[in-house]
Design goal:
It comes from Dialister succinatiphilus YIT 11850. This protein is of the alpha+beta class. It is built from 4 helices and 4 strands; from the N terminus they run αβαβαβαβ. Helix 3 links the parallel strand 2 and strand 3.
Length: 83
């Protein structure tokens, strides 16, 4: 998954929104920033593993925020499944 796919798709931004998307099984792929604190990223990684959702970690908080069209950094984002 690339940031271009995130930009062009339907997504949610931020830890809480990403957690909700995982819980509701609406996330197709989760982006977790490589410079995110482990205490934040670990629970998301575990939730993705148990739900079988792929995770991308090759991007910074700044890159994810920019891809989502927000002016602040984002620790995570989820690309949503199309229904």
């Amino acid at each position: 998954m690339t940031l271009e796919e995130l930009k062009s798709g339907t997504f949610v931004v931020g830890m809480k929104e990403t957690e909700r998307a995982i819980e509701k099984q609406e996330a197709a792929c989760v982006f977790i920033a490589s410079d995110c604190d482990e205490r934040i990223s670990r629970p998301l990684m575990e939730a993705c593993q148990s739900s079988g959702i792929p995770v991308e970690q090759g991007f910074t908080k700044k890159e994810i925020g920019r891809a989502c069209g927000i002016k602040v950094k984002a620790a995570s984002a989820a690309l949503l499944t199309s229904r």
